Structure formats: structure tokens, C-alpha cells
Amino acid sequence: MKNSSLFLSFACCVFAFQLSFSAFSQAPELAKKPGEYYQIAVYHVATKGDLDTLSQFFKSVYVPQLHQAGFAKVGVFFPVTNDTSRDKRIYVWVPLKSLKDVNKIVPNRSCPRYARLENNLMAAFTDAPHYKLPVLKGAHQDHIYELRSYESLTEDKYLQKVKMFNAGGEVILFDRLQFNAIFYSHVIAGARMPNLIYMTSFDNMASRDEHWKTFSADPEWKRLSGLPEYQKTVSKADIILMHAADYSDL
């Protein structure tokens, strides 16, 4: 965590540079005043013991620390593949009202060891400027949170994919089909750019699979995905299915 505050300070500089000089800021999809910002920190560990130790630290120290700093909602998630994967991860999601809130996320010297830390700083989509808390049924341990990251080969292709979500109506489609989306965002500083990240949520894995089946068969999706301007806009898609920690605010 020692490097996280330095990285975030650098991220703010990168974002300011982008807004001032990049063609990104001239695109209609990104030109509107953004809503919220989000940070996702991904902690990598090698063993179940390290994972449990880090999670206990988050539960007893770090999440309360974030609450005291003014962050009312903090999401903590574990990929469903953690049990079998050599690279075990914890995802920590924090919503920010403005970029100034980045300065409130400070390192804690008592943080247990981890192998690696990634940070993504994101801005909410114009058609989804605020996050939404999920409304889920059933047991908490069965709930599924799906984090998707879509990368593009060029900025132009990326902007077309963002347009597909906003002006194209993909956000509206997700809402109509009750995907319980928590947030949609484009990455403004991170290891993989250009890319967008969004999160949906489901009662359980069966519900998740059924929702995507319905989505794929929906006439509006078939029409939208068939439009020439939205072809080959995604070069790489990462899909992470997760459970929330028992102390997560989501």
C-alpha cells in the first residue's frame, strides 16, 4: 500500500493532462461533466493464509478507516476462482464524489504483505453518473458480482464502445433486463488503456447465466450489436465473477 498514494497522485496528473490535451475530451461521449469517480484496488496474494490475513485486516482496520474518511460505501470482493487459482485476489471498490477524494485514501503501515497491487481510477459514464446499490434476493454468500473490463485497440474504437453504452442505449438495455448494474465507468488511469469497466450483480450464478441468455437473445441487443459503427470495438474482455465479503457494504 506504500505506493498507492504516489500512484494516485500521478493518476490525477495523467487525468488532468488528458482532459486538457487529449482528443478524448473532445468526444461527445466524454465531453459532458462527469459524475462520480471510482477506485478499484486489486490485491494479489499467493496463499490462502495471506488472503485470509489481508481480508481480516480490511475488515477490522482498512474498511473502518475508509468509513471514517467519509466513504460510506466500500465494496470488497473475492473472485470465485480464488480457491483454485495460484493468483488469489481481493478487489476493493471505493466511490469518490470528486478527484479530491483520492487524497483521503491513504496507506496504512500495518497492512499485511501482498504480492502485488493494481489501481484503476475511473470516471462514471454520462448516462450512469452515479452508482446504485444492488437489490438482491437470497443468501448473501450466493450473490454474484460480475466485473467486466473491455479493452480497445485504438482510442477511436474505445470511444465507439463508450457511445454504444450511452447514446447507443446499452445502459438502458441492461436496466430493462434488470442486471442490477452498480456502476459503469471509463478508466482514466490504469495499467490497461483505453478500457472501460462496469459491474452487474445477481441473486446467484443460475440467475446470472439466465440474465445473459436473455440479453443475448434480446432483439434490441441484436440490432445494436449489428450496427456497423460498433463492430470490433472490443479487443479484449476480462470477466471476473465474485462474491462479496461479509463486511462489504454491497
Please explain how this structure is put together.
The chain is of the alpha+beta class and 250 residues long. The chain has a single domain (4-244), classed as 2-Layer Sandwich (Alpha-Beta Plaits). It has 7 helices and 8 strands. The chain has an 8-stranded antiparallel barrel with strand order 1-3-2-8-5-7-6-4. Strand 2 and strand 3 (88-96) form a beta hairpin. The longest helix is centred in the N-terminal third of the chain and has 21 residues, at 48-68. It is globular and about 50 Å long. Mean pLDDT is 89; it is low at 1-26.
Features:
32% helix, alpha+beta, Alpha-Beta Plaits, 250 residues
What's the arrangement of secondary structure elements?
Blueprint: H1 4-21, H2 28-31, E1 37-45, H3 48-68, E2 75-79, E3 88-96, E4 116-124, E5 144-151, H4 155-165, H5 170-176, E6 183-189, E7 195-202, H6 205-217, H7 219-225, E8 236-244
Antiparallel strand pairs: 1-3, 1-4, 2-3, 2-8, 4-6, 5-7, 5-8, 6-7
